[in-house]
Amino acid sequence: MSVHIDITGLRRERIAVVPSPLAELGMALHALAEPAHHPGLQGWATGVTARLDPHLADRMCEADFLWRTTFSDLFLPCAGIPGGTTLPGATLAEDLDLLDKLTDEQFVDAALEFTCALAYSSYGPHALSDPEVRRRAVDLAASRGPQQTRFTERLLEDPPRVRTWLRQFLEDCDEAFFAESWSRLRHQLAAEARHKTDLLRHKSLTEALTSVSPAVSLDETAGRLTVDKLTEGHTVTTDGGLLLVPTSLGRPHLLVLHRYGWQPVLHYPVGSPELAAPPSVEQLSLRMTALSHPVRMRICRHLARSAYTTGELAQVHGMTAPEISRHLSVLKKAGLITTRRRGRYVLHQLDVTVVARLGSDFLEGVLR
């Protein structure tokens, strides 16, 4: 499972690295709504919440599904401007002006993403003009509760009214807490943009693009950029460009905007060094599958305490050496055990560090 971006024929000068104040405000709202996703920001989130005006806090709940469960493409409106070359604004006001330039159809499509009501990676009928799609959008919103239902009905009935509400809300958030945070974050993000731009100019395209994240890989021969995620998607740069948007508040989320007809965007986290490169989705699945077998779980119990030979494990478990070897092979392929030779014996032991990190690796893979 991955998101693929076809970059065939894409010239380096059409790859831009630009911070977005609106995207960062969206991540700030997400971190406030889901502090458990961002343990490193809990101090900041607590401080903001403590001094937040109660009325603004209530308004945050009216449409928090745009940034809590789904990071809406509305926070990257530059990608929806025809031509595929528009960059984020230098200020929040400029980004909000780009949001105003989206058509009502684009705005509604992006705002309804939380319902999964509309086609994302392909062209499809629109909720503003197709009664069946409109009915389905309302039904799906209703399954998520009255708050989403009210928002969806208002959105479909009067898109300009919702657009005005959203812009005013985001401007109020900027005044209340985000402007102060952005004044600090923008320097770090600008430095990251300069660094990545320098890599694009002076290093190989593969080195420059894969430096975004260990989850990003490039096949230059096939002209395909792949982002390792627990989802599937496909998009193309066509005559437009590729936009890289760094975020200081977004870790561990690595987001890919691959909406049909929009410019592809990689929204990637910076600012916190990786303790270790997270495993790929395939490797994570391999490890969890390996540990799901009861015999291998019992083998791990022994290998966590000491190193054992195949023969010793066979005797302990009442199995043949070939049977134990097959289970050890699965665990070793998954990277869960290490082996070392002592004379004519081969000793196996559980890699406790890898196993201990499995929960956090799974969570990062799910949230990536």
Protein described:
With 368 residues, the protein is α/β, with parallel strands linked by helices. Helices cover 48% and strands 13% of the residues. The chain contains 15 helices and 10 strands. It has helices spanning 21-33, 42-50, 54-60, 92-101, 104-111, 131-142, 146-157, 159-202, 205-210, 281-291, 294-303, 310-317, 321-333, 352-356, 358-367; strands at residues 2-6, 15-17, 216-219, 224-228, 233-236, 242-247, 255-257, 265-269, 337-342, 345-350. The strands form 3 sheets. The chain has a 4-stranded mixed beta sheet. A 4-stranded mixed beta sheet has the order 2-6-8-7. β3 (216-219) and β4 (224-228) form a beta hairpin. α1 (21-33) crosses α8. The chain starts with a strand and ends with a helix. The model has no long low-confidence stretch (mean pLDDT 89).
DSSP strand (E) fraction? 5-15%
* Class by alpha and beta content: alpha/beta
Largest sheet: 4 strands, mixed
Spatial gap, N to C terminus: 12 Å
Find the count of extended strands (DSSP E, 2+ residues). 10
**How would you describe the shape?**
globular
Please give the count of helices.
15
Quote the average pLDDT: 89
H/E element sequence: EEHHHHHHHHHEEEEEEHHHHEEHH
Q: Over all CA atoms, what is the radius of gyration? A: 24 Å
Poorly predicted segments: none
